[in-house]
Amino acid sequence: MKDTIPCTKQLIDIAEKTSSSVIAVQEVPYDHLSRYGIVKGKACGEHLLLLDDIVEKPRPEAAPSRFGSIGRYVFTPALFSCLKDTQKGAGGEIQLTDAIRLLLKKEDVYALLYSGRRFDTGDKLGYIETIIDFALRDEHLNQELTAFLQKTVHQ
User: Fold this and answer.
1) 57 burial type by CB count under 10 A (0-12 exposed, 13-18 middle, 19+ buried)
2) Strand ranges for the chain from DSSP E
3) Burial class (CB in 10 A: 0-12, 13-18, 19+), 117
4) pTM score, whole prediction
5) Helix (H) or strand (E) segment spanning residue 7
6) Measured between alpha carbons, how far apart are the two ends of the chain, in Å?
7) Any idea which architecture 2-118 has in CATH?
8) pLDDT, tens only, 77-130
9) Residue 74, beta-bridge partner list
10) Where are the domains of the chain?
11) How far apart are CA 19 and CA 28, in angstroms?
């Protein structure tokens, strides 16, 4: 049942129960750890961590866990002052991870270990996989796309 509840709805439910900010995380492969903000925290319930830290794109050997932030968040208003106080980082950009680290000094932040399906459109293959998955679920596209894919695979 939990997998059928949208990720953002799960985050909202936790935020309402805890009156705290909540971020979604998933376990990521070791060789992908440097692509994510990686969290460190203590288990405090089913699929829930109370965060101690978050590190932006660490080297795999330096990562505090295998749980990466997947870009779904529910924040308290306190995040805005943290963003304002965050210094520019890599590439001259303000990093959300740095603002979350400031937020951790002010209030509790939780991480939901999300187990549902997620699409990573941040790279070319993930983007293509997303389009194909959604197209195969579409009754108007499924048959033609399946035929095309079968023909392409057998060439």
Assistant:
1) middle
2) 21-27, 37-45, 48-56, 67-74, 109-113
3) exposed
4) 0.82
5) helix 7-18
6) 41
7) Alpha-Beta Complex (3.90)
8) 999 999 999 999 767 889 999 999 999 999 999 999 997 777 778 789 889 988
9) 22
10) 2-118, 119-155
11) 28
For the record, the structure tokens of 2 come out as 């939990």
User: What residues contact 21, with CB distance under 8 A and at least 6 apart?
Assistant: 15, 73, 74, 75, 76, 78, 79, 100, 103, 107, 108, 109, 110
Could you write out the DSSP letters of every residue in 105-145? HHS-EEEEE--S----TTSHHHHHHHHHHHHHH-TTTHHHH
Residue that is written with structure tokens 């089913």 in the block: 46
Q: Which residue has the tokens 């990720």?
A: 7
User: Contact 47/115 with Cβ under 8 angstroms?
Assistant: yes
